[in-house]
């Protein structure tokens, strides 16, 4: 499978089959915290970056086996709404496999385009991000394509809320001293109250981000922010279900990762190529191995290298 990955245990959606509609790393943002590396094509141009018919063929092959899934999720190594064929795949799933719920994990930057809003209307859950309201913080944290303006993005999200009948889980990623000031929190709360998402999910760094100066915000601070955002329905995104609860967790993959980095430390991209594993899927295993203390990461010129903990 070239464009499908998993099923992976997702922190937000349970057992989720990933569908990747853009190559690494096509995105409208270049967030400093991105876990899949620096954006190499910083664009807002929509086109068929990946041939949609091939994606549909893979889905047919996979879904005909009637897998047990909580969601089919558009996400991956870049921004899925940049693929102009997104609507076609969504309609295909809804028509031929209506038993599956669909989610779109998106950076939310393109909903000011009517065609993008129209294409996602049939899905069940949209998980857009909004990390900042003020343009200055947006530029620092998300480093957007030069044609994107945050007020236009926010207008697009309001419009989406009006037209979309499914659930919206708004994600806010927090980085200390970047978007956790009182002023920014007041603005974020104002916008979220107006947008009325079904849920606000607070997130922070889980594994090394693109830039090594970025750190995770503490749990205490996340709790403080959660209290501040009340009465909005807010959750701090919990760690994924543990591997014991996940049928799709593959012990062999874990061993292969450990075996490989025992010989020499590798970056996530090296590992993904060597083990022929989608970067997003690999990331779940790396997070689990870091949490269990079996591996650690080390920043070098070519990125973060994963190695066995000494
Ligand atoms: S975190 Fe998401 S939106 Fe930000 S650069 Fe990475 S893929 Fe793009």
Record keyword descriptors for this entry.
single chain, 310 residues, alpha/beta, TIM Barrel, Arc Repressor Mutant, subunit A, 8-stranded mixed beta sheet, two-stranded parallel ribbon, 10 helices, binds iron/sulfur cluster
Task: Characterize the largest beta sheet: strand count, sense, and whether it forms a barrel.
Answer: 8 strands, mixed
The largest beta-sheet arranges its strands as 1-2-5-6-7-8-9-10
In CATH, the homologous superfamily of the largest domain goes by the name Aldolase class I
Provide the residue-averaged pLDDT: 91
Supply the number of helical segments.
10
Instruction: Give me the count of strands.
Output: 12
Shape from CA axes?
globular
CATH first level of the largest domain: Alpha Beta
> What quaternary form is this?
single chain
Strand composition percent: 15-25%
Low-confidence stretches: 240-247
Domain tally: 2
> What is the ordering of alpha helices and beta strands?
EEEEHEHEHEHHEHEHEHHHEE
CATH topology of the largest domain: TIM Barrel
List cofactors, ions and other ligands. Answer: iron/sulfur cluster
First-to-last CA distance: 35 Å
Cα gyration radius (Å): 19 Å
CATH architecture verdict of the largest domain: Alpha-Beta Barrel
Helix fraction by DSSP (H/I, runs of at least 4): 25-40%
- The assigned structural class equals alpha/beta
């Amino acid at each position: 499978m070239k464009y499908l990955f998993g099923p992976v245990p997702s922190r937000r959606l349970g057992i989720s089959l990933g569908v990747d509609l853009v190559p690494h790393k096509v995105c409208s943002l270049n967030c400093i915290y991105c876990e899949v590396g620096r954006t190499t094509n910083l664009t807002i141009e929509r086109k068929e970056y990946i041939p949609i018919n091939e994606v549909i063929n893979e889905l047919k092959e996979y879904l005909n086996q009637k897998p047990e899934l909580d969601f089919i999720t558009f996400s991956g190594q870049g921004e899925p709404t940049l693929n102009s064929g997104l609507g076609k795949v969504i309609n295909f799933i809804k028509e031929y496999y209506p038993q599956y719920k669909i989610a779109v994990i998106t950076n939310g930057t393109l909903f000011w385009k009517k065609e993008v809003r129209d294409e996602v209307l049939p899905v069940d859950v949209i998980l857009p991000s909004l990390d900042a309201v003020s343009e200055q913080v947006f530029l620092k944290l998300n480093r957007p394509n030069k044609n994107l303006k945050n007020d236009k993005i926010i207008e697009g999200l309001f419009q989406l809320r009006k037209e979309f009948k499914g659930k919206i889980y708004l994600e806010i990623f927090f980085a200390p001293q970047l978007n956790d000031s009182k002023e920014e929190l007041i603005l974020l709360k104002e916008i979220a109250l107006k947008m009325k998402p079904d849920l606000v999910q607070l997130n922070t760094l889980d594994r090394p981000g693109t830039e090594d100066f970025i750190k995770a915000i503490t749990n205490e601070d996340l709790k403080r922010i959660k209290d501040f955002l009340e009465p909005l329905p807010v959750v701090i995104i919990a760690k994924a279900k543990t591997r014991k609860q996940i049928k799709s967790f593959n012990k062999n993959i874990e061993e292969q990762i450990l075996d490989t980095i025992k010989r020499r430390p590798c970056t996530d991209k090296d590992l993904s190529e060597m083990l022929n594993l989608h970067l997003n899927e690999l990331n779940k295993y790396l997070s689990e191995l870091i949490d269990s203390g079996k591996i650690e990461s080390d920043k070098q010129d070519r990125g973060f290298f994963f190695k066995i903990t000494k």
